[in-house]
Amino acid sequence: MKLDNEISKTIENNSIIAETNHRDKKSIILLSILPFLSIFLVVALGFLKKTDTIENIKTGILTFILTTIMVFFIRIQIDITKIRFSKTIIFLANIVSILLVMLIKNPEVYSFWLLGGLITAMIIDNKLGLLLSFNMTFILGLTYALGVGLIIHFLVMGVLLALLAKHLKDKSTVTYSAIIILSTDITLSFIINNFIFATDKSYNYMASIFSIFAVLVTAFLLSYLYDKYINNTSDDISKDTLIADESDNLLDNLDKSSGNTDLVSMPASDKVTKTSYDLLISDNNELLIKMKEYSESLYNHCKLIGDLSGRAARAIGANENLARTGGYYHEVGKLQGKNYIEEGLKLADKYSFPKELKEVLKQHNIKYDKPTFVESAIVMLSDNLVSTIEYIEKTGKQKFTTDKIIDNIFKMRMDKGTFDDALLSIKDFNLLKEFYKNEFGLRDKDLIKED
To answer: In this structure, are 226 and 251 located in the same domain?
Structure first.
């Protein structure tokens, strides 16, 4: 009964996730109407403020052009549209920024409108955040006939916020980043206002600092809430991916009988020399050092997957070096951004990874691409098994033996046809299953001894 309830709850939770993603896909219509809604808001609010008609029309046309450019940028950046609720966030960030520019008194001092660009840079993409900040700066400058100095001030602030967006999300660097931003704002204001600090003259320094500080705090909190409750990301393993892809399907298959599928056998690829892989998995490798500095947990996870995949490949006579290196770098893209597959491929090009290794990076995640050869299938299995078992143990929902979990993950992959293109023989498929059972069985015995 408890197992049935657990399965039902898991399926229900993932139905909600699927439904939410479906609604987010539909929200693409928001991007299409964004330029038109933006020009309407600017012109309507301009008339309410009794702005000169010609100037109001000029501002509206500029708003339409700038917003259209931004929408075009979003359409050609595939990574942006894959981020959860990205289109909704962009839509709200743009509209709210326009409202703050047009409705707040003295927006050149109370610069709360910078929040839209910053939150976009922190959650979605820093280049898009920079573009949104630039758009709002030009709209602000034209609406209030600001001088060149103030426009340059906000352009510089927009660049700085976009550059430091990633560091503003990190608890260990947010304080230093905030100090840099606030000190830069004070310095620019001081220079633009002819080196005069008298607040009763023309510029309220304290109000400016307060508004920037409020923007930083708000952006940090919103980004934190997004990652915790919507994106559900961590440094090493995506909890959302685990729940939506592995744990629910695992539980759903626990009471089903095993099935057999004949798979075609093909020799493993061995086109790259051992030396090139040795360099990549060396502890002195630049990328591995960067990964360790970025996140110790991510580094340890990737090392674990690499070592496990290498031994699994050896067990069936596949390319051990390729599988091990693929495991080491399967999540290297997390150093760069949200879509770690795309970012990992960019790094692979930059560091001249072998062609087969690039394919492993692309094919180890079923949500991105299916494996087309044995080694990428092995890295996928290693990552699936480690992530799922650790997640189930961490949440205290361990109701099954490790062998049972492994059996059902293998069956699930076979039933879904995940390895149909990997050219993996049924013999090797079963050998891999036994290998992983032995590996995790030894680990479980060690844990029992420690207890």
So the answer is: no
List, in order, residues 6 or more apart from 301 with CB less than 8 Å away.
Answer: 236, 237, 331, 386
201 with 294, same domain: the answer is: no
Residues 81 and 125 in one domain: yes
- In tens, the pLDDT along 386-417 reads 988 888 877 766 667 888 889 888 888 888 88
208 and 252: one domain?
no
DSSP-assigned letter for residue 332: G
d(C-alpha 432, C-alpha 51), whole Å: 72
What mean pLDDT is reported for the chain? 80
CATH at residue 269: 1.10.3210
Residues 135, 98 contacting (CB under 8 angstroms):
no
Q: What is the pTM of this model?
A: 0.52
The domain total for the chain is 2
Domain annotation covers residue 15: no
Q: How far apart are CA 213 and CA 208, in angstroms?
A: 9
Residue appearing with tokens 């090797």: 428
- For residue 286, the Cα-to-chain-centroid distance in whole angstroms is 22
Block residue for tokens 């939770």: 13
Interval 267-311: pLDDT, tens: 333 344 434 788 898 888 888 998 988 888 899 999 999 999 999
Of 180, 207, 231, the domain-final residue: 231
Both 218 and 253 in one domain: the answer is no
User: 54 burial class (0-12, 13-18, 19+ CB within 10 angstroms)?
Assistant: exposed
| 421 and 311 fall within a common domain | yes
Task: Produce one character per residue of 4-42: b if its CB has 16 or more CB atoms within 10 Å, e if not.
Answer: eeebeebeeebeeeeeeeeebeeeeebbeebbeebbebb
Residues in contact with 366: Cβ distance below 8 Å, sequence separation at least 6, in sequence order: 245, 380, 416, 418
> What are the pLDDT digits (tens) for 62-102?
999 999 999 988 887 766 766 778 888 999 999 999 999 99
What range defines the domain where residue 298 resides? Answer: 239-450
Question: What percentage of the chain reaches a pLDDT higher than 90?
Answer: 38
| d(C-alpha 251, C-alpha 6), whole Å | 8
